[in-house]
Design a protein that fits this description.
Blueprint: E1 21-22, E2 25-30, E3 33-38, E4 44-47, H1 49-58, H2 65-72, H3 78-90, E5 94-95, E6 117-121, H4 155-168, E7 174-180, H5 188-204, E8 208-215, H6 222-230, E9 234-238, H7 243-249, H8 259-272, E10 278-284, H9 291-302, E11 306-311, H10 324-346, H11 354-364, E12 379-382, E13 387-389, E14 401-404, E15 408-409, H12 411-421, H13 435-438, H14 443-450, H15 461-481
Parallel strand pairs: 6-7, 6-12, 7-8, 8-9, 9-10, 10-11
Antiparallel strand pairs: 1-5, 2-3, 3-4, 12-13, 13-14, 14-15
Helix pairs in contact: 2-3, 4-5, 6-8, 10-15, 11-15
């Protein structure tokens, strides 16, 4: 957390030839303490009583410094008022009302920005037929059934992809490789060979590769589970909740539900694979919005270490698209889980709601995003033919391809993408206090919803602001009552 504004010398004075007014910040409270979330810097400052009084006074309108000091001098020492005015001016919480609004910087990342994570789509086939699937469902952007791409990535392309990752990771000592699909385990032999190859090549270069993969769990077998455990592969299971929820939309091609197939396999995975925590990834739809039931089933009854939930990416007219009322209900339950997460954090206990943990970590680290995520920059996806895309969700889309693993990144296309998708280009976001955290949102969501990956996700603006405010309150509560807990986010 950013420390309270530092005490300055009592001799500090404030220019009295200009009017003072409030500038851009978002206020929040926790345990009676008042905080400011600064925009766009994402710094957090705790107000003392003098600072709070100054902001309260200026909330009524601009004021001359001398008049402001005079109005507060009966309750606070003049030197302290002057110090605090200076401090609030320094952090740009207050300032000249005629000064131009602080513009969103349009500075682009350096050309040698390293690739941190590569998502390898080792197959574009799947043995499930989930109704809402962004890759095979009604809103797909790539023809994976009849398209020209190979259905499975070859061993040679996978090895080229590893070499690409190690080269593009530049000076980073750790590179991250995530296996994805389709259903990833349909190409399990390539997973095995790629892990061995990547370990050998990384060791030759004095680096290390961390591995993870996502699966629907239908093809897990004892030998696969043991291999995952032995190789310390991080695992995320795509599962939507209890039997009625899972079998509603996550089905086989004949319509049969998948819950009874995957549950025993997941239980065995959780029992055997203890080298890394196992997480669940849930897609929420209008048909099943009981977030609390889903979360409790997956953590308490199944045994997942953590659960992350995300609303379905689709167009409004789909019958599973979440309605405005559904979004409100989803937010209410998210917030309830977030406050439960706080109660556990205050006791130094684990909770497992990764949505809260991830946002709190970004707040703690002072993240102020120029881009909605790292796609096309620190994160890239690779299609089965080796084409490099913005991320795994765009794998195979010519419009969103940035190069090939054999020839590298097309820097001209990447530069064009970075310019078009920068927060500076999203004028709708420039007046939003939550833009440091959101920066317009997911590119794939924008493409599906608006037909343009650079478009801000305006349909979730209110939701994002409400969620971010809740997480700020939780952060402030931790800063007040258990600040040591926040140190775990410093790594």
């Amino acid at each position: 957390m950013s420390p309270p504004v530092a005490a300055l010398s009592p001799t500090r004075t404030v220019r009295n030839d200009r009017t003072l007014a409030l500038r851009e910040f978002h206020p929040f409270e926790a345990f009676g303490a008042r905080f400011l979330y600064m925009v766009p810097s994402a710094g957090i400052f705790r107000l003392d009583s003098t600072g709070a009084a100054i902001l309260d006074a200026l909330a009524a309108g601009p004021c001359e410094p001398d008049a402001l000091v005079e109005s507060l001098s009966g309750e606070y020492e003049i030197d302290r008022i002057l110090e605090t005015i200076h401090e609030l001016t320094e952090i740009r919480a207050i300032g000249d009302p005629s000064a131009p609004k602080e513009q969103v910087p349009n500075d682009l990342p350096p050309a040698d920005f390293p690739l941190n994570t590569m998502v390898l789509n080792v197959t574009n086939k799947c043995n499930l037929a989930c109704t809402y699937c962004y890759e095979y469902g009604e809103d797909k952007i790539v023809d994976t059934r009849y398209g020209k791409q190979p259905k499975f990535m070859s061993e040679e392309t996978a090895e080229e992809s590893v070499d690409f990752l190690l080269a593009e990771s530049k000076g980073q000592q750790v590179a991250r490789l995530t296996f994805f699909g389709g259903e990833t385990l349909l190409n399990f032999p390539v997973l095995q060979k790629t892990v061995a190859y990547a370990r050998r090549r990384a060791q030759e270069q004095g680096k290390r590769v961390e591995f993870s993969f996502t699966t629907n769990a239908t093809l897990l077998r004892p030998d696969i589970i043991q291999w995952l455990a032995d190789n310390q592969i991080g695992v995320t299971i795509s599962i939507d909740g209890p039997k009625a929820v899972q079998d509603g939309l996550r089905v086989f091609s004949n319509g049969r539900g998948s819950y009874d197939v995957v549950l025993p396999k997941i239980k065995e995975l959780l029992q055997v694979h203890r080298s890394r925590p196992i997480g669940a990834r849930v897609t929420l739809t209008q048909k099943h919005l009981n977030v609390l039931e889903i979360f409790r089933h997956l953590t308490q009854e199944v045994g997942f270490w953590e659960v992350g939930l995300a609303p379905v990416t689709t167009q409004d007219h789909r019958d599973y698209a979440i309605t405005p009322e559904g979004k409100d209900e989803m937010l209410r339950q998210f917030e309830q889980l977030a406050w439960e997460w706080l109660e556990c954090a205050l006791r130094d206990e684990h909770h497992g709601f990764s949505n809260a943990r991830d946002t709190i970590e970004e707040i703690h680290k002072g993240v102020s995003k120029a881009y909605g995520c790292g796609a096309g920059l620190g994160l890239m996806g690779v299609a089965t033919d080796g084409n490099v895309s913005l991320c795994h969700r765009f794998a195979g889309s010519p419009e969103h391809t940035l190069g090939h693993v054999s020839s590298g990144v097309d820097r001209v296309k990447q530069q064009s993408f970075l310019v078009d998708h920068h927060i500076a280009a999203k004028t709708d976001c420039h007046t939003c206090w939550a833009r440091p955290i959101c920066s317009g949102g997911c590119y794939h969501e924008a493409h599906v919803r608006y037909g343009d990956s650079s478009h801000a996700n305006l349909h979730y603006c209110t939701w994002v602001r409400s969620w971010t405010h809740t997480c700020l309150e939780i952060y402030g509560a931790l800063a007040e009552k258990n600040p040591k807990f926040l140190e775990r986010f410093d790594a």
